[in-house]
């Protein structure tokens, strides 16, 4: 993700691995007054249903999801849902693909930030093949298609 000049903005281009059809563009905008960061965009080529959606620690996608490290977690919290106070900063929950494999993304979040010591700029946005259980269950969500 790269910062655009002159404001609290970022963009992530989603692209899957060699055999993946996943593509998309996500725009990040942070309102300096409220602190809320909006994530807007569209991801296509997904299987219908829920897909875990996270900020991972490292903006290194050379080895797909594996090189992006764990969920961005500067405060050392447990994994959770976006609405939880106790969550990884990078826990943005799930996005939902319709039967055509298209997920329209619109998220407003107060924990991810485009500025300051815990900025998410330069990190990885990961769209997983599997759903995120939001810390409620025991689902593994090691994953597939990727980002940035
Ligand atoms: Cu993830
Ligand atoms: Zn997490």
TrEMBL record:
It catalyses: 2 superoxide + 2 H(+) = H2O2 + O2. Residues 22-137 form the Superoxide dismutase copper/zinc binding domain. GO terms for molecular function: copper ion binding; superoxide dismutase activity. Coiled coil: none annotated. It comes from the Eukaryota. Keywords: Antioxidant, Copper, Disulfide bond, Metal-binding, Oxidoreductase, Zinc. Its cofactor is Cu cation; Zn(2+). It holds the Pfam family Sod_Cu. Its EC number is 1.15.1.1. Belongs to the Cu-Zn superoxide dismutase family. This is superoxide dismutase. It comes from Eleusine coracana subsp. coracana. The lineage of its organism: Eukaryota, Viridiplantae, Streptophyta, Embryophyta, Tracheophyta.
């Amino acid at each position: 993700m790269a910062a655009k000049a002159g404001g609290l903005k970022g963009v992530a281009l989603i692209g899957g691995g060699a055999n993946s059809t996943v593509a998309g563009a996500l725009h990040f905008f942070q309102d300096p007054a409220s602190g809320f960061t909006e994530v807007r965009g569209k991801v296509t080529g997904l299987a219908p249903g829920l897909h875990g959606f996270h900020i991972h620690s490292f903006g290194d996608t050379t080895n797909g999801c594996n090189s992006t490290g764990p969920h961005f977690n500067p405060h050392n919290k447990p994994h959770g849902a976006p609405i939880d106070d106790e969550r990884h900063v990078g826990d943005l929950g799930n996005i939902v693909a319709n039967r055509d494999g298209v997920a329209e993304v619109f998220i407003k979040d107060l924990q991810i930030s485009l500025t300051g010591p815990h900025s998410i700029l330069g990190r990885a946005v990961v769209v997983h093949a599997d759903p995120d259980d939001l810390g409620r269950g025991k689902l593994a969500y090691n994953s597939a298609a990727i980002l940035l």
